[in-house]
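Run log, item B.
One chain of 202 residues. Sequence copied directly from the ordering sheet:
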Amino acid sequence: MWKFFQLLVVAGLFFNGPAHANPNAPDAKALINEEFIKKTRVWLANPIVALSIKAQNDKRGSLKQADIDKLDKQWRDERKKDDKPLISATLTAPLSVYLLRVQAQNLGLYTEIFVMDTNGLNVGQSAITSDYWQGDEAKFQKTFKVSSNAVFIDEPEWDAERKIWRAQLNLTLADQKTSKAIGSATVEVNLTELQRRSAPLY
């Protein structure tokens, strides 16, 4: 019986084992270190970021949940349609153009970047997100809701399509003069690429 069990284990490894397994996840917090976060804050300090967030905060104010849900539903519905007024307006905004340029200039280091207002709604983004409201997610709850300088690094996730590990660096964004939180940002990092760049040169 024991030998039969051993044969089943071996067979399982052969058909479902290492050849089909994901590579080990890199240490996201070791790779996304203080130096990396500091460099990220430098390009997030571009005036277009704060100006865009403040403009949307002034325009919308503090929205009721029903209004937030309506905007989020509109976004998700537009993803399935040819006519995309809300998505188009967001993707063509100066902030989105800036974030897309940052992503492109870093040659595969970032897989996605988006910035949110005080309601947790997108202000600018480098690609179309699945939804418009992030306020109920950890990326917003553990940054904007915590402090004006909060940082939250999410757990690594395996991207089977691109064959890379990725993790989200989330930061509260604050007014440079008053230090008051005005929104937050999510920078999705290609950990596989970051690990390659961090490897020592011999």
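Observations after the first pass:
- The longest strand covers residues 164-174.
- The longest helix spans residues 2-16.
Flagged for discussion on Thursday.
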